[in-house]
Amino acid sequence: MRPPIRIRTLRGRMVLVNTVLMALALLVVAVISTAFLRAYLLDRVDERIEVAAEFARARQNDIFSQDTAELVKQIRTPSDFVVEYTTDASGGEGSRVHRLQGTGPVLMRGIDPATAPDGVFTHRRGGEEYRVTLVHLPAYDTVALIGEPLAPVREVVQRLVAIEAAAGAAMLLASLAAGSAVIRRGLRPLDDVVDTAEAIAAGDLERRVPAPTDTDASEAGRLTLSINRMLSRLRSALHARAESEERLRRFVSDASHELRTPLTSIRGYLQMVSRGVVDVARRPDVIARSERESERMAAIVDDLLYLARLDERPAPRRDVVHLDRVVADSIADARAAQPEREWRAEIAAEGLVLGDEQELRQAVANLLANVRVHTPATSPAVAALRRVGGRVVLEIGDSGPGVAEETAAFVFERFYRGGPSSQRPGSGLGLPIVRAVMRGHGGDAVFTSAPDAGTAVRLEFPPLEDRDAAPGAGERDDDLPADGGFSSDSHLPRDLASSASDGVAANGPPGRRGSRSMAELLYRLGGFAFRRRWLVVITWLVLLVAAGGAALQFRVPLDDGFSIPGTESERATDLIDERFDGRGGTVTTVLRAPDGADIVDNEQYTDAVRDTAAELEDVSGVDRVISPLEQIGDARRQYEDGIAQSKEDAAETARERATGQLPPGTPEEVVEQRVAEAEQQARETVEQEAPGFDREQVVERIPQISDDRTTMLLNVQLTQPNDSVAPETVDAILETGDSARDAGLDVEFSGQAISMSPPALGAGESVGVIVALVVLLINFGAVVAAGLPIVLALFGVGLGMALLYAASSLLNLSSTAPIMAVMLGLAVGIDYVLFVLSRHRKQVAEGMAPDESAARSIGTAGSAVVFAGATVIIALLGLSVVQIPFLTVMGVAAMVTVALAVLLTVTMLPAALGFLGHRVTAGRVPVLGRRAEAAMTAERTMSSRWVRAVTRRPLVPIVAVLAVLVVMLLPLRDMHLGLPTDATSAPDTTQRQAYEIISEEFGPGYGARLAVVTDLTGLSDTEAAAADVADRIEEVDGVTEVFPPQMNDIGDTAIITVIPEAGPSSYATEDVLHDIRGLESEIDEEIGAQIAVAGATASAIDVSERLADALPVFASVVIGLALVLMVIVFRSIVVPVKAALGFVLSAGAALGLTVAVFQWGYGAELFGVEPAPTLLAFMPTLLIGILFGLAMDYEVFLVSRMREDYVHGGDAQHAVVSGFTQGARVVTAAAVIMVSVFGAFVFGHSEMVKPIAFALAVGVLFDAFLVRMTLVPAVMALFGRAAWWLPKWLNAVLPDVDIEGERLAAAHPLPDGGNARGTGERGSQEESESEQAAHR
Q: Has keyword Ion transport (predicted)?
């Protein structure tokens, strides 16, 4: 059984406790705020209901004075009130309930007024909750119900919960990151202590814990100071012990060496005397020689003892010594000892120094004695005392023969007597004593000599004011104050904890106490994830489960609209919603008879049309269906009602005439007979003279019937706007029409609600993943290594989708955004893991331990991944520059999956490598595995041969690539942008079939209808004004038909439907739109009405023009960002300019080829696409944003290797070849994977995504293989060293970005020549070494 997971580190426990406490606090706040908000909203609902109830009680006489029908028509209550009443006070099931306001189920059916609670209470009906109250009106035997649904309250509360969950998660993550950083920073001294202890244990006794800053008064800082003091004391003690042992050894060695000769002489003489070999009386010189040897031995012992005292003494006396007097006395003594030599004293300064006068006299005397002994008497000697740079300098020189350079190097060694001096008297301790005396005084002795040029010894003293120069005079040589000690608690006082005057040196590696580079932070993160792999994996899995639950709870229907706030079409649509009481969307049902048959006169077909209309009316979400057959029936009824009214009018006239013609007194029976006869005759006359019902004329006037009477349109009016129609409603509409199909009619449907059905992922998109797996198998040659990038990419995409759907109510997520996020998330997720995993595999193959390799791979290749991901994210966020909401949402959605891909690469990947260990190459494919392993060490690869061929004659590939890309740019002149319409739908879709039928039977302009909204506020005759506006619009060139104005209920607004001649994607339709809008000022001045054009066509044109205007701004921002980033990264001018121009060429070529395929139709059958008159209006902007990030990825991964080789001293040409060879294999695999993933979506089911995927696929293809792998090395080779030129002033200003982790090796060097063993291996190695040492 696996032991429970425990957090063993103090840092981990502190972070966990802080996180748990923060989560509990956020949870408490969320629960309290949610409960408070719900209670507040319920109180407001109850308050409104009670006010309305009091109003009903007070005004019941006025309310019930009207007819029920009029009351239902006129009553309007605020908000979403439900108002019902029943005249049966019992409220039984059989009572009749009248509804004055509201929608949904009848509430009073489930309430018994007799037992209902008083006041406001909650009532559940039809799966929904309502707050209601019953108002009893006994005077009218009526019970009224006033209520309000709680759905808005629930939605507000759910939104608050979603916001709190998102904000709480963000705050929790921020708190976790900040707390972890603070705790890590606070406990960093403990890590430094551990590192220092390990270094000291390894033998580095000079290592110290990095010293805290001056302002650091924390316990950890004080602990650092105390440990450094302790280490300094220990080092001092160890050094003192070592020096003492060394002095003892040297004393014994020197003494034994120097005393051996006189002792041997004395012993020999004594043996000769004792054995009678020598007679002392005859040889008195024996006694004299023995005495001289004993005196020499005594002198040596005295000198050794003197040196030993100098070595052991902590400091000399600190008296003021007049060095000028010492020099004068010493010269006088030397002149007395050797009067034949010329002795001079050149005293140019008073020479005040601090020290021991007797020791200084001894040092000067030793130097003068050396001159006297080792130079001829004819050589003059000079003692010059002067002050140089504030320091006292005494130089004693002679003009003797001097010594050789090899001899001069050892004159201060004890007992050294080289050259001719070895034949002269002396112990060889004079100069060592001089140096020991000078160093004891904080100065030094310098010996200079050359053959035949004399010798000079210079004594340099410290300045008189530098009282702490000598060790022990105020400061010890162990970096501790002379009076420094430890208190009983081994801590510094609090007021001194942050002081920097204690002299403790921090000898740790540079930068340890400062800010760490990104590479080092990632190195630590990779190591942490490798060691704490269970924690990392479980954290990600918990996040996935939580995000999935949130997605199920808070997911809302996706928004399929492409509107832009502020455009004229959007303002017109808002006016329609305001003036026409929330007018819903429409769906057009197209019914066409086969073989040109008449659909109007064929009874079988008309019955089928009626059945289809009835089916549509029964669909939930359908308001009404307008059928041409119903219009024909209405016309007949109007005709018949008119004839009947005419008969009645004629009969009334005949009655009056007949009554007036009869004389007074005519019997009543006669009058009635004459009147009846006159009425009958009048009716017959009207019937005979009235024209017959002209059905054909009626049919011709109905616009929903084609001219050849083969096609009929049913207009289905929906209850909700097009972008809010439930998918169930769309599915139910599409399932109707079976009776018409059975009758032989073609039944198709069109409309925005149909076209906006969300795209779905199919089997075609999975082809890209399969191709990526094959490429990874070829690259790695092992199943496990090939599957790891796929698994992590799918995990990231799944988590990203869950997060996006969880936040769909906040982001107003469009249906295209998740597809884009999946596509980009898969591509970069696989590529990023590939880059890091390739580095890890190579390092492990070279002998590096998996743990060190994982951390180092994250620190090096992971740094490049973070930079590349940040570049993509910045480019996607740059989509918000154009200020188009749906495009911003697309960028945010794709950004989420890209960010997750980066985070998973630097955390989940090393955790997975921790589980795999050396098994990362498991599942080795025989042939592929051998080829992949050989590729890591091969010097002659396809990449090296390619780059050498490219750089041999760089102008040739440069011209060739530019020619290809320029040719690809040519189709751009015909690029026509627009939004998706039925004309651009897939050929097999019902909306595309409906569009084809409508265009054929009614003309292409019928699908490009424009809705001219006419504001008639303030005009007296609004209908006449609307008709006048329609007449003026009809005169516009390019307008085929103008329908009569449709007035709203109040009569202050009209909608005039305009049919242009051309289709929705034609430039002629755009001209019609602009011409109609050009009438605004004329209509306003002459009629007094204001017009605005709405409709899908107008909205598409507005969006396209807005996007076209914003594209240059966005492109400028992206290209400018590319230049700045590349200058910072590569410290060059040529490289950024070349990278930006290459990006522009590849993006333009991708757009040009997309125009050739998707507009011109070249190769459309090959890709299974249908040519369309327009491309997506937002595709260029989206392509530039995404392709920019990917292009910079390849630029970084290729050129950074070139720069690294060049900076390390390589030739510019060689750096291009070597850098390209190192990165080309991985970049090639990454580009092929990305092209495969994008290309798979070209064969998917979403017509909207196909051109985007195609443009991205060919864009990556052009950029990776033509620009980055051909044009880039050629240009770099052409410019040579000039490619890396950067002005010095700019180089000084730019920040230093280490994206390849070049400084990581210095901060974390590898032992054993570059190969780091794992902890287990290192432990076993140390044990083996310990055992060998024990045996030795």
A: no
Contacts within 8 Å (CB) and 24+ apart, 955-959:
955/1274, 955/1278, 957/1270, 957/1271, 957/1274, 958/1271, 958/1274, 958/1275, 958/1278
Helix (H) / strand (E) containing 731: helix 727-734
Euclidean distance between CA atoms 63 and 57, whole angstroms: 10
CA 227, chain centre distance (Å): 42
Task: Return d(Cα 1026, Cα 1030) in angstroms, integer.
Answer: 6
1268 secondary structure, DSSP code: I
Which residues have a Cβ under 8 Å from the Cβ of 445 and sit 6 or more positions away? 363, 412, 431, 434, 435, 438, 439, 457, 458, 459, 460
The confidence score (pLDDT) of residue 261 equals 62
* Residue carrying the six token digits 């060394």: 246
Give the model's pLDDT for residue 256: 67
Helices (H), 66-115: 68-74
Instruction: Describe the chain by its helix, strand, coil percentages, rounded to 5.
Output: 65, 10, 25
Which CATH number is 318-432+444-471's, of 3.40.50.300, 3.90.79.10, 3.30.565.10, 3.30.470.20? 3.30.565.10
Rounded-to-integer distance, Cα 1175 and Cα 1162, Å? 15
Q: 601 Cβ partners below 8 Å, 6+ apart?
A: 709
Asked whether 910 and 865 are in contact (CB, 8 A), the reply is no
User: Which pLDDT score, from 0 to 100, does residue 1153 have?
Assistant: 92
Q: What is the pLDDT of residue 1335?
A: 37
Nearest to 362 by CA among 437, 474, 259: 437
Strand ranges, E, within 827-983 = 977-978
Q: What is the pTM of this model?
A: 0.58
**DSSP calls for 807-844:** THHHHT-BSHHHHHHHHHHHHHHHHHHHHHHHHHHHHH
* Residues of the chain with confidence (pLDDT) below 50: 1-2, 68-69, 72-78, 91-94, 421-423, 466-515, 1312-1336
* pLDDT given for residue 308 in this prediction: 64
**pLDDT of amino acid 911:** 92
Among 291, 294, 264, residue whose Cα is nearest residue 280:
291
Q: What is the DSSP letter of 594?
A: G
DSSP category for residue 500: S
Cα–Cα distance measured from residue 1143 to residue 1262, given in angstroms and rounded to the nearest whole number: 9
SS3 504: coil
Domain ranges in the chain are 10-171, 318-432+444-471, 585-755, 943-977+1104-1284
Of 1193, 1330, 1165, give the one whose Cα is nearest residue 867: 1193
Q: What is the pLDDT of residue 466?
A: 47
Spatial CB neighbours of 194, under 8 Å, sequence gap ≥ 6: none
Helix (H) or strand (E) holding 1071: helix 1067-1077
Instruction: Identify the pLDDT of residue 1333.
Output: 37
Indicate the residue type of 656: E
pLDDT recorded at residue 554: 76
- Model confidence pLDDT, tens digit, residues 572-587: 887 877 777 656 778 8
Location of structure tokens 């012990």 = 241
User: In the block, which residue shows the tokens 């995404």?
Assistant: 1186
Which residues are CB-contacts of 766 (< 8 A; sequence separation ≥ 6)? 1240
Model pLDDT, residue 218: 65
Phi first, then psi, for residue 1322 (nearest 5°) are: -65, -40
Under 8 Å CB-to-CB from 732, ≥6 apart: which residues? 619, 620, 621
Strand partners, 1012: 1056, 1093
Query: Under CATH, which number does the domain 943-977+1104-1284 receive?
Result: 1.20.1640.10
Cα–Cα dist 869/832, whole Å:
9
For residues 394 and 385, is the Cβ–Cβ distance under 8 A? yes
| CA-to-CA separations, 396 to 5, 356, 383, in angstroms, rounded | 77, 20, 4
